[in-house]
Amino acid sequence: MRYRIRQLRPKRSAHYSLPSSSTPFPSFSHELSVAAFSLMLAMQAGASHSARFLRVLIVGAPGYIGFESVKKYLQCQGIMRASTYVLLMVAPVNLALNVFFVHYTSLGFLGSPVAISITYWLCFLLLILVTYLSPTHRRNETWDGIQPGAVFDPRSCWTFLKLAIPGILMVGTEWAAFEIVALAVDGLVLCLLPLILNTIPFGIGVAASTRVGNLIGARDAFGAKRASHASALLSVVVGSAVMIIMMATKDVFGYIFSDDDAVVHLVSKVMPLVASFQIADGLAGSCGGVLRGQGRQHLGAIFNLVAYYVLALPMGIALAFRTSLGLQGLWIGQVVALFIVGMGEYAVVWLGTDWDREVQQGIERNQEEAKRRQMHESLQE
User: Fold this and answer.
1) Cβ-proximal residues to 24 (8 Å cutoff; 6+ apart), any chain
2) Is residue 9 predicted with pLDDT exceeding 50?
3) For the chain, which terminus, N or C, has the lower number of CB atoms within 10 Å?
4) How many Å apart are CA 330 and CA 336, to the nearest integer?
5) Pick from 80, 89, 85: which is nearest to 136 by CA?
6) Domain residues of the chain, as ranges?
């Protein structure tokens, strides 16, 4: 069976992630840091509500993590649409819950995190139900019960963490860099736009990581290579389309945020810079996904750390506050970072990948996991 060789890995990955969903204590520290930053930056009184919002939202954290874990578990087996169907079913429920709790109860704005938390848990439970009912999942035979001894085997945990920690750094460092820019410009609404647009290449990257990982697991080196280049090409095409739209609307785009002519003028000055990195952002998102599919997240983390925190942020802040460029200086730094990351990661995927070797390494990892599983089962007997 195609996915049989990868049987242990998706199950064990789900095992590692699900226990963490019941321990959302890091979120408490995040909540405290939000409150501290609000005070340090002397932000308006309304900003302090973010800590209260997060405190309520923590209730939904286990459900969210559980949903993501089961989603990845299914995607490892080629079951791609289950989570999409669940989200389509739950989206209108989420809207209705938000309207009800915010406008028809005494919770006010806190009704929104209550609604979101309920939605997260609903997504998780529905996806478990879909998994249980899925005939493809039953045929794949990838689940044979919870095995705590196998899950917490130190060598297996270390194998998992070697992928998880660089993956967190890879994604988190990029998002954090944009958040730092938002803080530096006192939360200008324009900073929200790149974060929203980033979901497009990030989505392509998620698809690429899943597809490339599946093909490597299926020992299809040519298919994995073709999928990686297809995702890069798609990201360039989509990025080009977004860039053209942004340039065509730069003089009127600011009216989405404000009727103030000064704000609209400022947006029109910065839009060409934001538009210019859409192709690079697309390459960074898609090729980053390919690297995750190969299990080389550490390369993406290194690219992001160097490009954003060694080069882009110091340069951008210096240009913004020590020259007359102002906000444009910050975005020049981000443009430089994204081009370094995008072109660097594509060079690794294009020139620095031996696909046959990646497949062989995947086979060796699976064989090691199989040996550990057999050893654990023999100890239980």
Assistant:
1) 58, 61, 62, 65
2) no
3) C
4) 10
5) 80
6) 1-146, 151-381
Length of the chain (residues): 381
Does 352 score more than 80 pLDDT? yes
For the chain, the straight-line distance linking the first and the last C-alpha, in angstroms and rounded, comes to: 27
Q: Which residues, other chains included, contact 185 with Cβ-Cβ below 8 Å and sequence gap of 6+? A: 191, 320, 327, 330
Single out the residue of 193, 192, 282 nearest to residue 240, CA to CA.
282
Contact (CB, 8 A) for 145 and 9: no
Residue 71, C-beta contacts closer than 8 angstroms, at least 6 positions apart:
82, 83, 127
**Which tokens hold the place of 338?**
């994204």
CB atoms inside a 10 Å sphere around CB 131: 21
Long-range contacts made by residues 123-127, C-beta under 8 angstroms, separation at least 24?
A: 123/63, 123/64, 123/67, 123/86, 123/87, 123/90, 124/63, 124/64, 124/66, 124/67, 124/70, 125/63, 126/86, 126/89, 126/90, 127/67, 127/70, 127/71, 127/74, 127/82, 127/83, 127/86
pLDDT at 343: 92
Reduce the DSSP state of residue 7 to 3 states and report it.
coil
Could you tell me the sign of the dihedral formed by the alpha carbons of 36, 39, 44, 46, in that order? positive
Secondary-structure percent of the chain, ordered helix, strand, coil, rounded to 5:
85, 0, 15
Structure-token pair, residue 145: 């019960």
Angle between helix 8-21 and 154-184 (nearest 10): 60
Please give the model's pTM, rounded to 2 decimal places: 0.79
189-218 burial: b if 16+ Cβ within 10 Å, else e: ebbebbeebbebbbebbbbbbbbbbbbbbb
Of 304, 280, 283, 301, give the one whose Cα is nearest residue 349: 283
Residue with tokens 């035979």: 141
Q: Is-contact 97 115, C-beta < 8 A?
A: yes
What is d(CA 294, CA 76) in angstroms, rounded to the nearest whole number?
13
